[in-house]
Write a structure and sequence with these properties.
Elements lengths: L2 H36 L23 H13 L7 E5 L1 H4 L4 H5 L4 E3 L7 H11 L7 E5 L2 H5 L4 H18 L4 E5 L11 H17 L4 E4 L27 H20 L1
Parallel strand pairs: 1-2, 1-3, 3-4, 4-5
Helix pairs in contact: 5-7, 7-8
Length: 259
């Protein structure tokens, strides 16, 4: 073969060999990039919260509610009894059963619950008990979370409506949101929320009743008895619950006898 032709064949052969080597080098990284491009994105978004949960808020106390469910298995509550439910004001009522005896009461208040958490968990720790009476205290922590009176009252009323729909014979006793020192600057919100729920109770008096706990917290001159509160200016020293008993037990005893 003439020398010029031999050089041309060698050059062609070298070019083909270089292209094959380049393809072998590039192909794996190209496939990896393609696979990365078509791989499904990781699921990072949680399930949307119900509409009644205020914007910017979350739902807490899942572990607290689970603890109550565990308690139900080891210590079943009385059938058709009197359920006390709500936030830490009731949760810390340690002598409730003794102080309310012989009424068949049981306590399933949890955490520092807000009104939206009461709605969120009521299918687990309210409705299954089928209580004859429900004593409800919640709203303090809504106020501390800067929620407005109309929203607080609407969620409380929604709780009442859901109870009445599921358990039409159950009577509900609304313990008014207390005017604690820690929310003194927001007492107007407390008063407004209590007034709205009070009007609802008056309009639905066949199944909702109001019990004013704030009367216990005032002295003869209408001033707040600050000595009743622990250093957090929100929760009560144990003797206060004896005074609460004096307010609520006669109401429940009369209603239970009629029941």
């Amino acid at each position: 073969m003439p020398m010029p032709m031999l050089r041309a064949v060698a050059s062609t052969w070298w070019c083909r060999l270089s292209l094959v080597s380049l393809a072998a080098t590039v192909a794996p990284s190209s496939v990896t990039a393609q696979q990365t491009a078509i791989a499904p994105a990781a699921q990072t978004s949680a399930a949307p919260l119900p509409a009644y949960v205020p914007a910017g808020q979350t739902v807490k106390y899942e572990k607290d509610v689970q603890a109550l469910l565990d308690l139900d298995r080891t210590t079943p509550p009385p059938q058709n009894g009197i359920l006390f439910t709500g936030s830490s004001i009731f949760r810390q009522w340690e002598q409730l059963t003794t102080q309310m005896a012989p009424l068949p009461v049981f306590n399933r208040a949890f955490g520092g619950s807000r009104s939206w958490e009461m709605l969120y968990y009521m299918d687990k720790v309210v409705l299954p008990y089928k209580p004859s009476f429900i004593v409800y205290y919640c709203g303090s922590n809504d106020v501390n979370a800067k929620q407005d009176a109309a929203g607080i009252a609407a969620r409380i009323e929604s709780f009442f409506e859901r109870v009445h729909t599921a358990l039409p014979k159950t009577q509900i006793f609304f313990a008014t949101i207390q005017k604690a020192p820690d929310k003194r600057a927001q007492w107007a919100v407390v008063d407004s929320a209590n007034a709205i729920v009070g009007r609802y109770a008056s309009a639905h008096s066949t199944f909702v009743y109001t019990i004013d706990f704030n009367a216990v917290l005032l002295d003869a001159n209408g001033a707040l008895r600050s000595n009743l509160f622990k250093p957090d200016s929100l929760h009560f020293y144990p003797p206060v619950y004896e005074e609460f008993t004096g307010v609520i037990k006669p109401v429940l005893t009369k209603a239970w006898a009629a029941h």
